[in-house]
Structure formats: C-alpha cells, structure tokens
Amino acid sequence: MMLAPNEFLTPADGDPVAVDNAAGQGGVLLVCEHASLRMPQRLGTLGLSDDALSSHIAWDPGALAVAQKMSQALDAVLIHQRFSRLVYDCNRPPNSPAAIRPVSEVFRIPGNEQLSEADKAQRAAALYFPFQNRIATEILARQARGQSTVLVTVHSFTPVYFGRARTVEIGILHDTDSRLADRMLAAAADTSLYRVERNQPYGPADGVTHTLERQALPHGLLNVMIEVRNDLIEDEIGQGVAADFLSGLLTESLQQSQG
Questions:
Q1: Mean pLDDT of 122-143
Q2: In whole angstroms, what is the distance from residue 185 CA to residue 173 CA?
Q3: CA angle (249, 253, 256) in 5-degree steps
Q4: Does the pTM exceed 0.90?
Q5: How far is 118 from 235, CA to CA, in rounded Å?
C-alpha cells in the first residue's frame, strides 16, 4: 500500500525544506533546489553505490555553501531542499520526465525504475509541493509587508559531462525575463576571474528554469539562475571567492536597476 505523503518522510528525516536567515532584510531571495545528497530513510540507497550517491547526479556540490555565504553577504533569506534530487528534482514539475530519473548520465537508478504514477505523485506531494509552496509563501509574505523580492537560484555543474569538458565557469541563466541576467552579464564582461556566459551550460530549452517560471515570472520579479562549475567551489576558499564575486555582481546589477 502506498504511504500517504506525510508518511513518506519519517520523523527522523525531518522537514523537506530548510530556511536559513529567515528574518533576512535584503531584497534578494535565494533558492537552492539541489542542496543536499541526503536520502529519506524509507528509500535506502535507491540501489546506488556510495560513489554515485555522493556524485553530482545526487546533488549540486558546493552550491549550498556558496548560497549560504551569499545569504550572509546580502542578508538574504535562503530556502533549500533537504533531500537528494534523485528522489525528486524540485526544479522540475511533476509532469516532467526529469523530475524522477530512472537514469542520470551513465548511472541506472534502480530505485526509480518502474515507479507507478501513484509512487511519483507521492514523492511530489512529500518533496516538490512543500518546497515550491514555501517559496511562494515567502514571496507573498514579502509582498504583504512591502519587502522587495529578487529571486536568485544557485546551482553547480560538473566540469565534464558525457566525456566532454566544459569551458564555461559561471553561467547566468534566464527564461523569458532577461532583465537581471543582462545587467549581470554586462557587469561581468570585463572580469578576468571567471569565464561567464549566458544560458550555459544549460538554458531554458533544457527545462532548468522551472522555479523561475513558477515563482518569479507570474509576479514580474527580477530573477536569475546561477550555475557555478563545481571544481571551482570544492573547498571553502573557492566557495568564498565565488560567493563574493556573485554577491558583488548582484549588488552592482541591482543598483543599476534602481538608478
């Protein structure tokens, strides 16, 4: 018998969503959809090895650490997922084949094979909807008290994908609203610190801008998705450099929008 959504996570698992700096007064609202490699107790390892479970297929290495440092620098609220995207990718809607993948890159995921529609709906109810609803609630609360909101999602990507090296180091991604991305790319044009590109290594055609589409576009909020190559943020020094660069880039770009 399928478990009810509120029984999918055990008491030991805790909540599916975490909020850092909940009282932050900054205008930026940070989101990290792929922050964790943790598995719910009921799912075990999904049939994967320890190496696979700690690799980039399970989470975005370094992304949460960068987002947390940006949260401090910008006094920004940070909302992040507490479970692996292998269980459910909270940056994909329930009707997306990429929400629960039976194969990720070269890895078969036995625990995601042959799931019924009810199984998939249960995972969405336990993980996706609480996560996206928490973002929506935060945005509405900020609007009610007159606090501005600029939605920024933070991700990392692997330097080699299907055997191909990626030369881009930071991607500035956007969907149909490119206002903030345009300013950030212009501000980063002269930097020698990173190779910064638009809609790389992914873009909206790859379905990666779902949170922006769902949460920012309907409200007309400035928004951007940031991707950092994960070999650059493997340690605290790299994470700090990236966070400082991105926080400065955002601050400069937002000041331009107010000028």
A1: 98
A2: 10
A3: 150
A4: yes
A5: 40
Structural domains in the chain plus CATH codes = 5-258 (3.40.630.40)
pLDDT digits (tens, 9 = 90+) for 140-170: 999 999 999 999 999 999 999 877 889 999 9
Q: Please state whether beta strands 103-104 and 107-108 pair in parallel, antiparallel, or not at all (unpaired).
A: antiparallel
Mean pLDDT of the chain: 95
DSSP string, 3-31: PPHHHHS-TTT--SEEEESTT--SSEEEE
